[in-house]
């Protein structure tokens, strides 16, 4: 099974709960500013701005100037890429767990067969 390379920067950005919440807010409500988004989170506007910069660097959001602020929106292609990577990792782990289960069952069967032969 071939897996796509994992983008650690992308996953590092998604790994933070505040950044995931920002993505949720932008996906649900459309484009927003740091000021508007900070009103929906228990963090300061400055903290929201820093999180948005990380998401922007990872390509998960894009921004355009809107007066004195920046308006952020989700880059849906990059989010789709993250979902594809998650599915790939999930499939890989599912296959690994199936192999482990088969090995454990084979060991248990061998124990049972060995115990009956004595």
- The count of domains is 1
Number of helices: 5
Number of separate strands = 3
Q: For the CA atoms, what is the radius of gyration? A: 22 Å
Shape: elongated
Fraction in beta strands? 5-15%
Low-confidence stretches: none
What is the element string, with H for helices and E for strands? HHEHHEEH
CATH topology: Arc Repressor Mutant, subunit A
Please tell me the overall pLDDT: 90
List the strand order in the largest sheet.
1-3-2
Question: The biggest beta sheet, please?
Answer: 3 strands, antiparallel
Task: Estimate percent helicity.
Answer: 55-70%
Question: What is the H level of CATH, i.e. the homologous superfamily?
Answer: Winged helix-like DNA-binding domain superfamily/Winged helix DNA-binding domain
CATH class: Mainly Alpha
CATH architecture: Orthogonal Bundle
Secondary-structure content class: mainly alpha
Q: What's the N-to-C terminus distance? A: 41 Å
